[in-house]
Structure formats: structure tokens, C-alpha cells
Amino acid sequence: MGTEVQADMNNGPVQETQTSGDIGGAPVIDLTGIEGPSRERIMREVSAACEEWGFFQVVNHGVDLAVMKRAKDASKEFFASPDEEKLKFAMKKNVHFHGYFNPDLMDKDVSKFSSTYEHLYYVFYPPLQEHKDRWPTIPEGFGPAMYEYVVESRGLVERILGLLSESLGVESHALFNGLKGPDVTQSNMNISFYNAKKEGEGEDQIALLGHTDPGAVTVVYSDEVVGLQVQKGDRWLDIEPTPNSLIVNLGDQLQIMSNGRFISGNHRVVEKSSKRRLSIINFYSPNMDAIIGPLDGLLSESNPPVYKSTPYRVYLDTFRQRARAQLLDTISSFKVLSLSDQEPSSESTIGTASTSSTIGT
């Protein structure tokens, strides 16, 4: 996903009635037989989830459970380390936000952030030496464990991209080829940790305001603690993690490439538990120089392009600029406008933005 921008988290208690349902807030899809006789069924289910939700969970997904456990164990061990050790890997402005972030420890305006939130943000793919040099070294083996998980979860994303391409009626590698552009796609990791709320500490709080991801596909490996919510219509629904599952949500680029058939899932995080919560997030993003637009095979006189074709680098820069200006909706600014259309005069906001952090889940 490239580097994202953190929204203001101090949004007060949750006001909406929380509604559960739809299998814990998003469809749960069993990927058993994805390369066999179940492929058509899985393709229909995944496509429907991407059209209606932009979110789904997958089980029997083919990502090695032992690899997932090593990534989770390494993440937990890092966050359990003494503050002085974690701060050795603190973010620096000149390295594009990579590193450890904790507003309580880093002289930030803590009113803008959840009081329980800290995270790590790194590029793990491609594993260039400049990336490896920044990976944490505590615990020992942290970088290799996370890289191993990234490779596995990237494989899952690329299997899903194949399904989605086929469901659109184009060649199975069409979405992947469009995202990789002149080189390779990128995976950025945001490992988010929410310390436990104290019993009786107050009402549920919005820890991360509603947003869509500007990249292509996001894979979330969450523990059993509920906190992530997805928007469905005018409701915010809890996503209740299924054991050994992974949560998948589409970003803006797949909404663009599908010419609006798939949707970028709007989501937020709510603090509601006296338990600690860990979330390992793989942002699968286009190559920065990839030109992203509606796939040619989808366009016709009756289905003209809804979105402009734009280098991902330009889209991401626009996303950051709009976040700083408190504007939520980036994708609408890349729509193809007819002569009768006008740019909306007012837009939703994401609160006061900070350029020192990343959007997480």
C-alpha cells in the first residue's frame, strides 16, 4: 500500500448501535479446492463479497499456520520488550515513516491517537537491503519470520486476484499484471498493538476512524479480540475473527481496475475490550510506477471508463495530501467527469491527520 497517513483517533465514544450478523460482519469463505472442482463456487462467493462488502474472511486459505504463528509470536515478543528497546527502532522522518511508533513515548500530541495504540511499519517485499537494514532485530529472527509470512500471504492475494480476474471475464493474470507495472508489487506491513483497556475505563472508543485503503488488497491476521468493523450501508458491523482465518479487504485500486464493479471496503477500529489486541496487516500494493485504470477488457460503448488511468505514485500522493486536508474520499477525485458533472463541493473528513503514522486495522 505504500506509506499511509494516520487519522485523528480521538473521536469520542461510539454512538451507533453495533449490529452483528452476516457471519460476524463479513462473509466467511472456505478456499478448500480453489484449484479444483470448487473453483467456480469459490469464485462466485469471492466476487459477490467484493461487490457487496469489499471485505471477507477466508479459511483453509493455504497460508502455513506454523508461519502465521511465528509471525504472531515475534510480533508479541517485540511489543512486550522494554520501551527503551522498542525506541531503538523509532520512526524517523527521512525514511518514509518506517519504524516503531508510540505517541506516548515519542512526544506526539497524544490527544490525536488512541491511548492504547502502538505499531510497527516496514516494507517486507521486495526485500531490498535498504528495507532489511531497518527491520527490527528484537526478537532475534523477527525480520525473517515476518518476511516468511509476507511471502505466504502474498501468494494468497495473488490466488484471489486470479479468481477476481476470471470473475470479471478477463485473463486470469490481468489484475496481477496491471498491478505489477514495470517491475513488482509491494508489500508493506503494519503490525498494530492495542494495549488492554482497564475494566470500567469507559465506553467503547473509536481508535481508528473509517477509511478505505488506497492500495490493492489488504490481508489482516488478527487475534481473537474483536475491534475491526466494516461498514455495510449505514451500519458498522464487528468482524469476529474465525480461528486460523485471514481477513481480506479490497483497496481503491481494485475498485478502479474493475471499473466500479468491486468496492473498496470502508472500515474502522473500535476499542472495546479489556484484552490486548494484535493485528498483522499486509498491504499488497501496486508498483509505484504502475498505471492503474479500468481494465481494457471491461470497457465498451455501453461500459465506458468510470475512473481515470493514473500512476499509482500520483494516486498515493493525492491520498496523503487529501488526508492532511481532512478529506476522506480520494477515489471520487479520480472519476471521469462528463460535461454535466461537477466536483462535489463538500466531502467527508477523517479528522486531523498526522503524517507520522500509518493507517492500520
TrEMBL record:
<dbReference type="InterPro" id="IPR026992">
    <property type="entry name" value="DIOX_N"/>
</dbReference>
<feature type="domain" description="Fe2OG dioxygenase">
    <location>
        <begin position="181"/>
        <end position="286"/>
    </location>
</feature>
<dbReference type="InterPro" id="IPR044861">
    <property type="entry name" value="IPNS-like_FE2OG_OXY"/>
</dbReference>
<dbReference type="InterPro" id="IPR050231">
    <property type="entry name" value="Iron_ascorbate_oxido_reductase"/>
</dbReference>
<protein>
    <recommendedName>
        <fullName>Fe2OG dioxygenase domain-containing protein</fullName>
    </recommendedName>
</protein>
<keyword id="KW-0408">Iron</keyword>
<dbReference type="Pfam" id="PF14226">
    <property type="entry name" value="DIOX_N"/>
</dbReference>
<dbReference type="GO" id="GO:0046872">
    <property type="term" value="F:metal ion binding"/>
</dbReference>
<feature type="region of interest" description="Disordered">
    <location>
        <begin position="1"/>
        <end position="27"/>
    </location>
</feature>
<keyword id="KW-0560">Oxidoreductase</keyword>
<comment type="similarity">
    <text>Belongs to the iron/ascorbate-dependent oxidoreductase family.</text>
</comment>
<feature type="compositionally biased region" description="Polar residues">
    <location>
        <begin position="8"/>
        <end position="21"/>
    </location>
</feature>
<dbReference type="InterPro" id="IPR027443">
    <property type="entry name" value="IPNS-like_sf"/>
</dbReference>
<dbReference type="Pfam" id="PF03171">
    <property type="entry name" value="2OG-FeII_Oxy"/>
</dbReference>
<dbReference type="GO" id="GO:0016491">
    <property type="term" value="F:oxidoreductase activity"/>
</dbReference>
<keyword id="KW-0479">Metal-binding</keyword>
<dbReference type="InterPro" id="IPR005123">
    <property type="entry name" value="Oxoglu/Fe-dep_dioxygenase_dom"/>
</dbReference>
